[in-house]
Structures are given as C-alpha cells and as structure tokens.
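Cont'd.
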Amino acid sequence: MAQRGFAAAVPKATPSPRRLSRRRFLSTSGGGLVLVAAGGLPLRVEAPRHSRTAAGQKAVLIDTTRCVGCNVCVEACKRKNGLPVRDTWPTDLSPEAYSYVRKATNRAYYAKRQCMSCIDPACVAVCPVAAMRKSPLGPVYYDASACLGCRYCEQACPFQVPRYTWDERWPRVTKCNMCRDRVEQGLEPACVASCPFGTLKFGDRAELLAEAHRRIEANPGKYVNHVYGEHEVGGTCVLYLSSVPFEELGLPALDEEALPKHTWEDTVKLPWVMGIGLALLTSAYLATKGHGSEAAAGEADEDRKEKRS
Amino acid sequence: MTSIHMPTPFPGAAPQVRWRPSLLQHPEVQALVHSFGLGSLLLAAVAVFGLGVITYRFYFGLGASTNLSDQFPWGLWIGIDVLTGVAIAGGAFTLAGIVHILHVRRFEPLLRPAILTAFLGYALVIVALLTDIGRPYNIWHPIVMWQPRSMLFEVAWCVMLYTTVLALEFSPALFERLRWRRLLGLFRLVLIPLVMTGIILSTLHQSSLGGLYLIAKTKLDPLWYTAWLPVFFWLSAVGGGLSMVIVEASLSARAFKHKPDLDLLGGVAKISAAVLAIYFGFKTWDLWNRGALELLYSWRFQNLYFIIEMLLGVALPALLLASPWVRRSPVALLTAASLAVCGLVLNRVNIALTGMWEAAGRAYVPSWQEFAVTAGIVALGVLAFKVIATLLPVFEEPEEDRIATRRPRPHRPRRRLRADLRSNRVRLRAHGFPVRAPSTR
C-alpha cells in the first residue's frame, strides 16, 4: 500500500455515501437558514382582536398641580382594600400600598402613583394563565386563584407596578385595580371619591384627554405641554398633568408602541415555523433516505447475505 | 454486549436459562454499587443538601430563601436552572435530526446519551420551576387556562410536550433492558414522527425562551435586546448543545472507562463550530445594524460580560472546534467544547441577570440557598445520568437485532431425511411428495 502512495488510499470514481449526504446536509441547512430568515421577516401583524382599543374605557386624570400631598387618597385606598394603615405614609408600592404619594425630587411637589391601567397592558399579555385581566371599562385586575406565581407580570411591567407577597406561604401579586368592582357598578374609584382638592378626576378616557388638553391650552406655561399616558406604551388609563418634568415624578420616558406588540409579532410566526419546519424536515428526510453512511450500506450487504444462506 | 452470567442455585446444578437473579445480584446493579466512589458520594451529598434546601424554601417561603425582589423577580433559578438547562439540552434534537432525518447514521452512538442528558435536563428544569414559582400546585393551569398571547404559555406547553417526547425517545433503552420486544417494534413505527415533532417543539420553545424577553424592551440592556432574540437563542442552543454532547461524551467516556470516539466527536465538533460561527456573525451584524456597537466603547460592566461571552464563549470555541489539531486531542476537544458550553451558560445568565441589572435599579446577588438548590439540581442530574447509564444500555452499540421483532431462536440444524432409506421414500410418497429413487453412483 505504501508503495502505491497516498492516492491509493483515496477512493476514486463514485463519491462516497458520506460525501453525498454532506452535500444534502448543506442544501437542507441552506433551507434551514431560509427558515431562520423567515423567522425574522416582519409579517403583516394584525393586532389580535381582543387587544384593547381606547374606545369605551374609563380613566383617571391626575392634575398634579393641585396635589398637596395629604395622602387622603392613600388612606381611602387602604380602607377600601382592607390594607393596614401605618404610622407613616408609604413611599413606594408594596403589598400593603396599592398606591402612594410620591414627592418629586428636590421640590415640594406631589403625585399619586399606582397601576397605570394600560390600554394594552404588558402584564395581561404575558400572564400564561390569564390571571391578569383587562376589563373593557379600563381596570386591570388580578385573579389569585389562577396565578402560578411565575412573576412574569413583574418582569414585564414597564412601570414596575406589581408587587409580590414574598413572605407568604403561597404568595400572590398585589396592585391597584382601579377599584374594578366600584367602576363596574358605575361608581368612581375610592381614591378619586376621597380627594378633597379635585386633583383626581374620573370619567370617559376620551373626555378626560380633551379636558386635559383644554387645561393645558387655557393655562399656557403652567403645565408641561404633554399629557402623560396619552400615548406612552400605547396609552394608559391613568393620565397625568404636571408642571414639572415627568421624570421627576418617577414616570419613565416610554415609546408609543404597546409592549405586547413585540411579543405578538413573534407569536404569529408560530404556525409558519411549524408548517415550514415540517415541510423542510420531511423533504430533508426523503431527500437523504438511502444516502446513509457506510455503516448503513454495510448493514444492507449483511441482510442480502443472510437472505441467500 | 455483555452476556448475563447466570449463577447456579447450587453447585453442580445445570445452568437454568429462565432463572432470574434477584435485583441485587444483577450484574448491572453490582456494577453500579461498585462504581460508587468518592465522586459519586460527593455528588449525592450535594444533591441531598439541595433537596433539603428546597424543603427549606417551601417551609420558610421565597422571601426568606432567595434574594429576589420586585425589581429582580427572575434570578439564578430562572437564569441557570431554567434557561441554561433547556439550552444545554439542545444537543438532543439537533443530533436526532442529523441521525434520523438526515440519515447521517454514524453519529448514532452519541444519540442515546444525548437524549438521556436532555431528558434529565428537562426533568430538572421542571423541578427548578416548581421550586421557583410561588404557587407550584397551580403549575398544571396552562393546560386548561389558555392565554396564547403569552410566550410563557407557549413555553409551558412546548416543554410539557417535549419532555414527553424525550421520554418516549429514550424508552427503547428501557425496553431493550426489559426485553419488551413488542414495544420496541412499535417504537420503530413512531420514531420518525417523534423525532420530527421533537425538532419542531424544540425549535419553538428554544426560541420562545428568547421571546420571553421581547417584552422587556424597556429593561433589557441594548447589548442583548434585539428583535432577533428568539433566533439567537435557537442558534446558541444548537451550537452550544452540540458542544454539550461532546462534553458529555468525553466525560462519560472517562467515567465509564471507554475510549471516546474522536472521529465521531470530531464530526460533531465541526458542525458545532459552523453553527457557533454563524451565530457570532449574525449577532455581530445585528449589533452593528441596531447601532449598538457604540455602547461597547464606554466603560460598563455589561460590556465586559458581553465581550467575555462573545469572544471567549463563542468565537474562541468556534475557532478551536474548527481546527483539526484540536479535534485530534481528547483533552483539547473537551476544553474547546467546555468553553462553548460556558459561553452558552454565560449568555443566558447575562440576559437574565447582567442585562436586567440597570433597569432594576437594585442589586441582586443570589442567596446561598439559591446556589445550593442550583448545585443540588446539577448534582442530581449527573448522578441520575450515571445510575441510568449503568443500569440501561445507553452506551452500547445499537445493533440491528436490538429492535428486531422476532424472538431469536437457538440455531438447530434442520433435520434432513436420508434419501437412501426406503422407509423415508415410502413415507414421503404416501404424503404425496414426488420422490425418485436415489441415483446410484
């Protein structure tokens, strides 16, 4: 063998079965890349039918220029929800504080903070068992009996609203639900009913938006020329008017796109992935059938020998 | 294949083929007991401790056993046990596709251990999930409560179905040991649909785990956040999963004292290197395309983690695994593959922890209980692999007659009638056979 040299060791003529299957492998992996690219193509995405539009929803308008930081709304919220009232007013959301009054950084300026009741809430979209639900009237509410405790809602909320009862044996998520039971009876939320200074106003979202813009126009220079919640993350049912930058109130600057859209764009591709995947796999299987490695060819030889004997 | 030595019930007794030895006298069980050395005992100790801490978590609650907070609701258990656990098991569906769909049969010896690794990995992911979620008694809810807009709903379903598929794909090993040939024959019919289902399910949930973070657009660091996250998760699971197959094969070759087939592992290494190279290129292009490359020019700790992940965890292993010198040495191959697996782990941890750090506004360092549970779960997986691979035929060469449906009969020479005997000829003629008188020579 050594005399004939290296070339003798390399088979000529027909390509070995392994070589052939590698070609097939590359061609089918090229098809796989097409699948990957298809996965990235922006298909035309319809917003799912049950995605909320703003029509018919109620909202709360918070005119922070009128707020004096008395915390009567916080007390009303606690009493309505059966939460303990402590010596000091809450400075952040917690399982005991579905809402709190936040002081602006570096000035005596106050704003009530609570769940923003988004029109297309991220928490509702990510909950795998629909424990978080959006009422057509606006409130976003929680059903603890369905909850797994996965905390995806906490992960998803851009306002960091949901709070978890970490110290309970079987924890649950807590947050403001815009007094859903009262709203569904036609009443206003407890906080709005309690405010003595008219900071909080409850009503139809479209009307409140118009009212907010009217106030801005009627008082040039008093307000920041923006109604926070009008477009943020697709719009929220809690609207803020402020004379200080919204960042000072802890309200983050956000895009106008509703967050669930980013996930939904991907979820719609599922049937495509399944269908194209099945087609690719079946064609790859049929294309490479019989092009197995030498071991398979060797087995076929053995079978033939057995049949003859 | 090792033949089972049947001890005789008393000296001088004829070996009885049908007598079954008691469980403890079974050679596989004997081998298992003898192989339990210091390493196994250590693993067992870590596993038992981890299980103990899980009990602690259920008694004292999540607040007392973890450092999770409302700003950091997903920590080590999600980042490593769930995300990394699922990613590392990506070698099973890739290898199954290569062996059964693309008919590259030479990799078949690697397939069954890879499927066992994946099955154990997914089983332990479920254990980790049960520990992490607040209401584990509701974990079955996604079966009856549907919210299709949620990526987690889709992940839950795919993981449930795929764990079943993995169990089914591994079942032939059990059937072979128990000699349930009928079921083995049945299995041959469902193999290809099962493999295809497994590949599609895997693709869906590997990418959906990345899709979980699509909603965190305002929170996840732009170095990692991209609309292509699902694709990146899938690519890294394929590349890193194949490297995990190499790691698992090398380590178990050492543990079970057989030689690693460098030819096979080299083939897997080539594929893994190609996928890792594609992943690296794609990810770099995406960074540039989004204009996020500029982020790397400043001093941030996220940059450091990102560069380590990409260079040491993707680029370097890709180059090493592609090099024929590395593929020829078992130690170098194991090192390169381990680098790729570490890169995969680092990627998932970066997305779950590092990338979410700034948005949380609050530090998160896992508690000792979280580390103990994670370590215990990994130790449990390694131990379970060792036990199952000793008791069941996981590493033996799959032979054709393993899944034969005919019961193998002992060879008896066929009785031939002597043609020269007149009585035979008479008997045959009486039965209607045309028989000639023997020709005299």
